[in-house]
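Work Package 3 (structural annotation) set out to generate three-dimensional models for the target panel prioritized at the project kickoff. During this period the team completed the workflow that converts sequence records into discrete structure tokens, so that structures can be stored uniformly alongside our sequence database. As a representative example, we reproduce one entry of 377 residues exactly as it appears in the project archive.
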Amino acid sequence: MLGGINLSMLMGPVVPVPVPPDVINAVSSIEITTASGTSQSGFRLTFSINTGSILQQIFLLAAGGGAAPKIRIVLMININGSTEVLMDGVVLNYQTSAGNKPGETLLTVMGKDLTALMDIIDFDGIPYPAIPPEVRVLTILGKYAVLGLIPVVIPAILNDLSLPLERIPQQKGTDLAYVKFLAEQAGYVFYLDPGPKPGMNLAYWGPEIKTGKPQPALSINMDAQSNSEPINFTFDKELAEIPIIYIQNEETKMPIPIPIPDISPLNPPLGLISAIPPKLKYMKDTAKLKPAEAILKGMAFASQHSDTVTGTGSLDVLRYGNILKPRKLVGVRGAGMLYDGLYYVKSVTHSIKPGEYKQSFTLTRNGVISTVPSVLI
């Protein structure tokens, strides 16, 4: 598609297989969005086909539901000799429209990552007596091993098990809904990370980690060294909130308010000067929870409401020389003293067309002025 960048695709039910070159050549645009937290990744593919193409019939059957299997699509990009899996998902719906050329039809298929298959059947009422949340998650994810899901499950920091005679936890809703519920209770996130090989997905259930080796820096306002378009930064102290949880005294039955800090070993400060949170979030519903559950819920809220600096922009992948990945750190240089430094990549959208590969992104951190003297170039 581009010099140094090649697109490849696998397609089929359950175990996808390589598509013929004609299918690749029919692709007119690709859009893939991945965000942090528990958001599902989504994709949109547009094919330029002739009327009556077999592709249209395949997706019509797949979108029809019933006994027809879901069509699974794996999209990969080879850049600088390294293959990156951008998306592994299933088609949920499609639409057609007339193209600009006589007899041309634009077929647009839309879908989500494989978590969509975890959100089909309601398993209400399945009991998990005296089983920790992480073991419940492993049990649920084991159903999807045939799809190449590899569990990466981090045990909960605090665990408060109930004896079977006191209470037996039961599943609520679909597998996806229940796994997300358990993640929220533990102050964790759950998402699928496609790769590292085609047909594989890392199913991560654990804390949102804002540490690690940064990706190559985004350079702006540096003439020939610039590898990104200008980034728009905003500083909004109204985004910061301190959660106040309540723990009930067993003897007096009086709720005790406890503020929860927004900094932890997995969520270190990336900005040297952060705003004093102007708002307090009184989480009164935590009074009915056990202390461990209340603390975890407060920690999750604090982590999600600490970032006051947001940066949005876009880049050309060929000029950047890499694929910017979400849920990781990246450096920024050339933005000035206030906004240079490390950021957490909150979301990335891939926009691919013949001869063009761009990414738009959103970066966040908790304050201004970098906590590190320099960033990785």
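The longest helix spans residues 291-304.
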